[in-house]
């Protein structure tokens, strides 16, 4: 079924005077207003995975007609087994210190559809290739190993954070507190923070809070870009995430209790929907929108109720899902972990569809993977990083030179691609927006990583879906690495060569969402986030064009 999003709120008086959200219904617009263009809201999702990626498995590396592949026998000589791109971007990345201008290269993602983009980003993404961007060569500026907020622009926290790094709010909070993004206060929450399982995060970020996220919120809302920050807590339980997102939608500031005598969520709104549906002014297509929307809410409620055992016999009260424990223990039931992610994604998509929030973060600290020929198992990202063990994703990522650990690391990321990233992308693309496009078209879904290859901060593997309403030119694989530069050193099958600062990706996203430099820069011309090469000696690649640090990524805008 294809569901329609709720993009505007029709404030009707329902049971108990609750303010309820209806889908946008064009046939009810006053005639004099129907000719005006309707601009759908933009939305942002950030998904973070841990312990780096295997470069040869993340990027295209299977031979396809028209492309050559670098041999994989010697990374130090630029032979890492990945596909060579030959089309030069129109806009340069900048100039090195010797004055040489350098450019990225690109290829259409559809050119890799016969084999799938890569092993991790397989053929299941083919229906969405024209709406995706795969990016290579985005480098963190300060030297950082395990970190918390790097993918959203805060490099000051983590196991190996550089002293003196700028401690700024992350991108999600810059968006959330900008009137350019939210013209008013959302009825649910500015940001919905989700985490797939607890981890002993004190070993990573030093805070000791087990459900901290990669999100850092400003304390001073009068000057957000310059504010000191606090690390944000995430929901690890779909029940509490649902409560935060929908408590006002349901007409109360208190979380719904199982023994409440309030009617179920769908029952509370159905009478108002029927009132509108049966009105004389509504068109046939809008009646269908209403029916589809009720079906969407019914399916969500059924999934949540299913986990909690269903409604109490004879009682129509809403059932919150039972608490799911995927906590800090070293083992967890794979089925429970999978169900947790499914329900978290259900809540995320429903929250977007009902417009109770437009920003979400998903922290994948626990995942499912397998060794070659073995059954699925649970793995934790860094729990804590200094330990070893069969379920330690971090340990397996370190042992890339061994076939077994390498296979585990790859299958973990295959699972994240198929069961976290893909469902978010597919379900947002199934929701029709007010302008006839899909909700994915008006969103940006970012899957980013804690690190690049091994424990280095070069070429952070990054994939985007959605174009923020056509702002980004999607459908491309872009490689920003300057392959004319020397290899400083190599680890696993990845190389340290200059690309472009990762900060510039974040600036592209901020501008795609409607913000200008005055909304996110701590000082004029500073760009966003820490841009100094803190902690990097001459052994590292550091010859970037810092005169372009405040610019968006080259040639990314449509």
Secondary structure blueprint with pairings:
Elements: E1 43-49, H1 55-58, E2 87-88, E3 94-95, E4 101-102, E5 105-108, E6 132-136, E7 138-139, H2 171-176, E8 192-195, H3 202-205, E9 212-218, E10 229-233, H4 238-246, H5 265-277, H6 284-308, H7 334-353, E11 359-363, E12 366-369, E13 377-380, H8 393-398, H9 403-429, E14 443-449, E15 462-465, E16 476-479, E17 490-491, E18 494-495, E19 500-501, H10 503-512, H11 517-520
Parallel strand pairs: 1-11, 1-14, 6-16, 7-19, 8-11
Antiparallel strand pairs: 2-5, 3-4, 5-16, 6-15, 9-10, 12-13, 14-15, 17-18
Helix pairs in contact: 4-7, 5-6, 6-7, 7-9
Helix percent reads 10-25%
Indicate the low-confidence ranges by residue numbers.
1-22, 200-210, 251-265, 303-319
Shape: globular
Strand content: 5-15%
Mean pLDDT: 80
How many β-strand runs? 19
End-to-end Cα distance, whole Å, is 31 Å
Main pleated sheet: 9 strands, mixed
Figure out the total of helices. Answer: 11
Strand order of the largest sheet: 2-5-16-6-15-14-1-11-8
Oligomeric state of this protein: single chain
How many whole angstroms does the radius of gyration measure?
24 Å
Helix/strand/pairing category:
alpha/beta
Helix-strand string: EHEEEEEEHEHEEHHHHEEEHHEEEEEEHH
Number of domains: 1
